[in-house]
Design brief:
It is built from 14 helices and 15 strands. The longest helix is centred in the last third of the chain and has 21 residues. The two termini are 28 Å apart.
Length: 412
């Protein structure tokens, strides 16, 4: 979220951010560090890792946030996800009337549009190409569909919780072994209907969140490449932000921007389907970021498999492209973000990148940016983004960073 900052902003975080990292981000963005206020509410019933409702309604925190809003003339709120707690906070700050689409979001619209079953309904209504599948609330119907339509025909299936992110709510069920669980936590083998019955008996409560939600079941297509497109839905319509390829290992582990598959004949149809999907979302009253996920199948077709109406895992990369790399970044540069990387301490990493000539250089518009620094008690991890002239140059920079960091981490 820090990469979305502008002069005069206040940023609300679940735990303190490293001052070194914050100065690095603001300097890279070209804004004054002293103009930005960081607010961290006291730990709540879920601890310090989650911005739970009790934390956002803490009186001392609200007083400090109101002061920042008034002192800096803040008139916009950009949450990671616009849930009921954020809606309440928006009203408390008097920003509800100035927030586009607030009426929709205030009535749990954000939850509705982050539902995988809602996606399947809107995709069906707009004719978007999707993997064969359906939405189920009955375990019996789900079992019949899985066995008769997929597993007995030799086809694996992916089962998705209605509400989750980055593949952490997905599992794959296959009639045979050897299926890599890309985009899911694991693969379960069900060679018979008895095996399937045993699996569903164990996992149905988890898949349905105790029977409260639907389950989305789709044919799983091995060897497919996950991609996405990000757009912004404004009052006047839909604005394209960018697209990319998602690295899965097995769940989301990085991005390649722009998507290499953009050269495929099917890609134009994918972008057309994205815009068709966004029309009813616009008409419903949602305003904000939408990320639409898809797969490039082995036969080079593109099937859309979900959308997320919230700040996405790609949003900060496109902000970096727009604000740091500059005009033409999408046509002239390749950005590769790597996640779950092991780092030495932040200052050592920054200095090492600079000493080796790998740090991002505004003059050449190439180099490496540290996008996330985990300075928590269990830290030692982070994310970085390579900005390169082309795919080959990106690989060279990525390999150079890996070679640089490995011995440094070994010392730690």
């Amino acid at each position: 979220m820090a990469w979305c900052l502008q002069d005069g902003d206040a940023i609300v975080l679940p735990m303190p951010v490293s001052e070194e990292f914050l100065r690095y981000v603001t300097a890279t963005l070209g804004i004054a560090r002293d103009s930005v206020r960081v607010l961290v509410p006291p730990p709540g019933r879920l601890g310090e890792g989650v911005l739970s409702q009790d934390r956002l309604t803490d009186e001392d925190f609200l007083t400090a946030l109101r002061e920042s809003v008034q002192a800096h003339g803040i008139d916009n709120i950009l949450p990671f996800h616009f849930d009921s707690s954020v809606a309440e906070l928006t009203r408390e700050l008097g920003l509800d009337k100035a927030t586009p689409g607030f009426g929709f979001l205030d009535q749990s619209g954000g939850r509705l549009l982050n539902s995988k079953s809602t996606f399947r309904a809107l995709a069906g209504g707009t004719g978007a190409p999707v993997p064969p599948g359906g939405v189920f609330s009955s375990r019996k119907e789900a079992e019949t569909f899985l066995w008769e339509r997929l597993l007995s025909q030799g086809q694996p299936a992916i089962l998705k919780q209605d509400f989750h992110v980055a593949g952490f709510g997905n599992e794959i069920v296959s009639p045979s072994s050897g299926i890599d669980p890309l985009g899911a936590l694991r693969t379960v083998t069900a060679e018979s209907r008895t095996d399937l019955d045993a699996y569903l008996t164990e996992r149905w409560p988890w898949l349905t969140d105790g029977g409260r939600n639907h389950v989305v079941i789709e044919q799983y297509l091995p060897e497919s490449t996950p991609i996405y497109a990000e757009v912004r839905i404004e009052e006047h319509g839909v604005e394209f932000t960018g697209h990319g390829e998602m690295r899965m290992k097995p769940v989301l582990n990085g991005l390649i921007v722009p998507a290499p598959s953009a050269e495929l004949p099917a890609f134009a149809g994918f972008l057309n389907a994205v815009h068709r999907l966004c029309r009813p979302i616009h008409a419903m009253g949602y305003r904000g970021i939408v990320s639409i996920d898809a797969i490039v199948t082995p036969d080079r077709n593109i099937l859309i498999n979900e959308f997320n109406c919230r700040t996405g895992g790609s949003t900060h990369i496109h902000r970096i492209g727009e604000r740091i790399v500059g005009d033409g970044y999408f046509e002239e540069r390749v950005l590769v973000e790597l996640r779950r990387c092991t780092f030495p301490d932040f200052a050592t990493t920054v200095q090492a990148l600079s000493d080796q000539g790998l740090a991002y250089d505004p003059a050449t518009r190439t180099g490496v940016l540290i996008t996330v620094d985990d300075n928590s008690a269990s830290g030692g991890f982070g994310e970085y983004c390579v900005v390169a002239r082309d795919a080959e140059h990106a690989r060279e920079l990525e390999n150079a960073v890996a070679d640089l960091l490995a011995p440094l981490c070994a010392k730690d």
